[in-house]
Amino acid sequence: MSFDRLLERIVETQNPTVAGLDPKLEYIPAYLREEQFRLHGRNLKGASQAILAYNKALIDALCDVVPAVKPQCAYYEMFGYEGMKTLHDTIQYAKSKGMYVITDGKRNDIGTTMEAYAVAHLGATLVDSEEFEAFGGDSLTVNGYLGTDGVAPLVKLCNERDKGIFVLCKTSNKSSGELQDRQIGDMPVYRVMGEMCEHWGADAMGRYGYSAVGAVVGATYPEQLEELRRAMPHTFFLVPGYGAQGGGAWDVLGAFDERGLGAIVNSSRGILCAWQKEGCAEQEFAAAARREALRMKEDITQHLPAITLP
Ligand SMILES: O=C(O)c1cc(=O)[nH]c(=O)n1[C@@H]1O[C@H](COP(=O)(O)O)[C@@H](O)[C@H]1O
């Protein structure tokens, strides 16, 4: 099961964090941008190639110390088909370096359309009886608020092709409580969604006690994070909101189980923009990302036991 592979990578690196690849052109050092503009033109192709070069350098700098990357599709879609090619090439490059890839698409729709999204991100497209992987990520972020028929096609592929999903449960943004904190009977909506995740995952259990159906729970709501960890013992958490959104090490500790497993904490801007924050030379951007990734690892793991598999 795909999260088994992620858990094994986390234990190997002793690092329960993921680097978010949410690149903006202004994060990319000018020399790297100009190099790609000269080769491909000052247009969507040049911009997309600059992002690819930047991502590859970051992956090279992080792959032995960070278990996973999380490219957010929106940052690639904004460059049109050239951007989508960069998303594909980034996913493939990260996998070739042994990293686990969480494609952050937050997809959801009715069942039939969801089958198409599932094939695009977790499966393979059939052309004349030959299979072609479109993007090839290991897991996908998903909006579960359309209910079971929007999630079932993904769970089927998780079982068939060793993949995983992360379902939005309690999101990190300021307005998340407008709907997610509302009560349904004696429970807030995020707890109901948590129950649904446990239920969806029951037929897709992995070796280490976590199912292929994970949940997204924001670092910016530490109390709910702790509450959901207790309520969802078989659900692995993706925890965004550390760093740029204000979450710190103490906020994320409630996401972990007694073995230091149970969650992976994301930082995107914190790692991508480390070189700008440090004020180091442009050429050092990847080394600065590695320094920040190692600092984040230490920041979180100093409060956890050595991470072990059951
Ligand atoms: O699914 C996500 O990854 C996600 C869910 C959520 O509740 N909050 C959240 O910030 N995210 C994503 O996590 C990343 C956070 O980025 P930084 O705030 O720059 O670390 C972005 O890619 C967001 O789209």
UniProtKB/TrEMBL annotation:
Entry keyword annotation includes Metal-binding: no
Family: Belongs to the OMP decarboxylase family. Type 2 subfamily.
Catalytic activity field: orotidine 5'-phosphate + H(+) = UMP + CO2
Pathway named in the protein's UniProt entry: Pyrimidine metabolism; UMP biosynthesis via de novo pathway; UMP from orotate: step 2/2
EC class name: lyase
Enzyme Commission number(s) of this protein: 4.1.1.23
Gene: pyrF
Molecular-function GO terms, alphabetical: orotidine-5'-phosphate decarboxylase activity
Organism per entry: Ligaoa zhengdingensis
InterPro entries on file: Aldolase_TIM (IPR013785), OMPdecase_AS (IPR018089), OMPdecase_type-2 (IPR011995), OMPdeCOase_dom (IPR001754), RibuloseP-bd_barrel (IPR011060)
Location of the Orotidine 5'-phosphate decarboxylase domain: 16-284
Active site (record annotation): 106 (proton donor)
UniProt keyword Ligase present: no
UniProtKB keywords: Decarboxylase, Lyase, Pyrimidine biosynthesis
GO biological process, one term: 'de novo' pyrimidine nucleobase biosynthetic process
Protein name: Orotidine 5'-phosphate decarboxylase
